[in-house]
Amino acid sequence: MKIVIAGAGNVGTHLAKLLSGENQDITLLDDSEDRLSQMGSSFDLLTIQESPVSIMGLKEAGAGSADLFVAVTPDESRNIVACQLAHSLGAKKTLARVDNYEYLQARNMELFQKTGIDSLIYPEMLAARDIVAGMKVSWIRQWWEFAGGALVMMGVKIREGAEILNRPLNSLGPDQPFHIVAIMREENTIIPNGNDSILAGDLVYFMTMKKHIAHIRRIAGKQELPDIRDVIIMGGSRIAVRAAQLVPDYINLKIIESDLARCHRLTELVDSRVMIINGDGRDPSLLQSEGISHTEAFVALTDNSETNILACLAAKRFGVTKTIAEVENIDYINMAERLDIGTVINKKKIAASHIYQMMLDADVTNVKCLTFANADVAEFNVMEGARITRYPIKDISLPKGVTIGGLIRNGEAILVTGTTQIQSGDHVVVFCLEGMIKTIERYFN
Fold it and tell me: What's the whole-number mean pLDDT along residues 241-246?
């Protein structure tokens, strides 16, 4: 597949690195020699130093013959123009990164599609949604919903004392109302089988239905943790603004921002019920005066990964149950997990998952990466005559490192077993080790 990526910023370079390892034909286009040089020579891709809105540069990058053209520069206007030009030159699919939520509204998408832009992505909004989802539940590291919430996936850190520890999964019984789809143990990702056991310290990903969440909370030993009512966000970034706009009414929210001018701007951007505080969110005396010891969740959203990690560690020392850190440095994510930070948000990974979805030939509704684990989850819509429908799951011979978490049939969620027969029209949630989605999509075409 020929893919042209315009913009060698954080999202563009991460996407290029990710895709270059999958034998894709990748060209990275940017007008900055410094940004392109940071890619080095260790990745299998072509770099071209030209403006993403230069017709000559687009032609040199091969945009006209691209299967997918992605514009992810920091400037949404350049991204829109670049996609329109690439479409006019012959690109099959185009995607533009934007910063304006109005553009994402359904009534406006048709306007962009008419001008040759197939999809829009707003990484800060995607990150804000994940933050708010994680903010709602104190004992869950990651929370994702599929098919409108018919199925949910939860990442839960298992501590000493949990009743599911040190038992083979097949000894838990066949009628458990969940499916354990992945286990992150230290830096190893396990797609488990019945002989695997959960150990203290594992990050375990459960697939279940909402009505069974209380059961999982009990067996995971999380009943004593408080529900979240009071939240402090450090850093008044765009992600913070979007998160504040999405937070449910029952949560009391404070945003601490060190820049006074930004504080004034925040008062215009968020609801009046959100308290804006001018100060340093790392200052212990300020945190104490703002009630950190009675706060259930602390979210660090500055533009510095190290600051966010350290701030969350400090919040935990004050007794905060739930901490969420934006960590944009990929190399720091595993460190954050070892330090037991809690939930980690990385908008590069979030954006890359969304873009990856457009590369697939199968009908895929969602693709998400598990931030800590080297694994992906995808929601496939099963086509008529697809290979996955020919036999029960146990007889399909799925590749090693792949498991099916559940499916939705006629609006009803079903947790699958080896005897489950998938049917055309089903929505199937599949977990796999990182980089395997292209391998398994042939089962669903």
Answer: 94
